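Async update (no meeting this week)

Hi team, since we skipped the sync, here's where things stand on the single-chain job. The sequence we agreed to prioritize is pasted below, unchanged from the tracker. I ran it this morning and attached the output directly underneath so nobody has to dig for it. Comments welcome in thread, and please keep replies under the output.
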Amino acid sequence: MRTSRLATALLSLFILSAIGTTEARGQTTDTERAAARGILAEINDLQLRLDPAGMAKRLAERTDTDRDAIVSRTTELWQDEMQDLSDFIGHNPEVAWEEFLAVDTLTSILRKRGWDVEVGVAGLETAFVATWTAPAGADGLTIGFIGEYDALRDANGPFHGDQHNAQTPIVFASAFSIAEYMQRSGTTGQLKIFGTPAEEVGPPAKVIMHEVGVFDGTDLMVRSHGVTETSRARAGFGSCCLNINEVKYTFLGRPSHQMSSWFGRNALEAAVHFYTLVDGLRSTLRPEASIQGVIPEGGEAPNVVPQRAVVDYYIRYPDPVYLEHITRMMDNAARGAALATGTTVEIDRYGEYRDGISLGTLQELAFAYAGELEAPRMNPEPTRPSGYEETGAVTKDIPGIGISIFSSLFANHTRGMLVDTFNDIGHTGFRISAEVMSSIVYDFITRSELRDAVAQEQDTLSGLLDQYHEALRAAYAAEIGDPIGH
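Output:
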């Protein structure tokens, strides 16, 4: 394992500076920080006891020939096979729920390597679970690897501007090298690769899979995602993209020819009134609110009064409590628009993304290995807490880590990030992500002190999460009471 002097120096600083900053910077808004002060203090005390930065430094800098052999094999697998696989998926983008070529390609590789593969899990046609059981037996740890493969879309068609094409090839390089180690060392246990579709749209596939028990029995979850800097999150509660309610408002009217429009009830006019009302609400909402909507349906023909119109919104806020207030206000605005236009409205909350749990033990370990492996663009300041997967739901029940290694000069969801996917910037970031992933999984399998620390941190934070939300409800009580004064 190569040692980076810069990384070592930075890690020494992290041990001194990261402790004590959770209370000051652990959450986004002043309300969050004030309401959760006592809870954040408990998280800070836990970090002092566990000393995740110190443990990470010891693990990453120690001499370990088995780990180094696994990392070398991971590198070999990436360079010889998985980089081309990543490029192939990148050049053949498929949007959410339509990732058939990607799934066929990925599962074919898994089957050829002797993995048991089930496609269509949780009733999702492009979701799969692949399982490898150690020859020494299944009695042992179960390590889960999350892989994604859906593409973005814009007016020019689908494209991998969020680098999901690389996620499952990264997982393959890591999982295959770990399986080889377990086989030759006689280690018991199982490895599972979870193919999770449609990360970019709702309803969230991981929530659907989690609710039917697909992830049950997993001791650790790992994944990676393309990013613009190498970083790690603080311990605590949060989400990568804020808490989200995905809500579809369907207005239903009555059709009529436009020459006698008074016989109709115009659903599009209701939708437009509603859209305008939402814009009018913005001044009454806290500035951290982020509300984006489109009108994907607005009628069939200009000479027919629209019978049906749909407004689709992503409603975001840093915490889920105030998010519910925003959504309630918008629901009432939709009902008001329907009442004013003689239409009706159906409200379908089809997706929810909530605070997840971020573990300092795993975040610091990933960052320490990133330094040892000379990852570029390392951000020394820990970021806002963020669960390792975007829905937050899985992270409350299963400990895990989302690895963030610099892989593009351009922002996520851009065609610039797509360009970097196929060049040295992306390929290097993906390779290091796989190497870091293998290092973490190896340590978790072989180091009981790491497993114990992860379990203690996960149990404590899971217990504190509900208390945190209750504290927020109390803090917002006067502000977000019944908006119509009843």
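Quick observations from my side:
The two ends are 65 Å apart (CA to CA).
Residues 2-24 have pLDDT under 50 and may be disordered.
Reply here if anything looks off.
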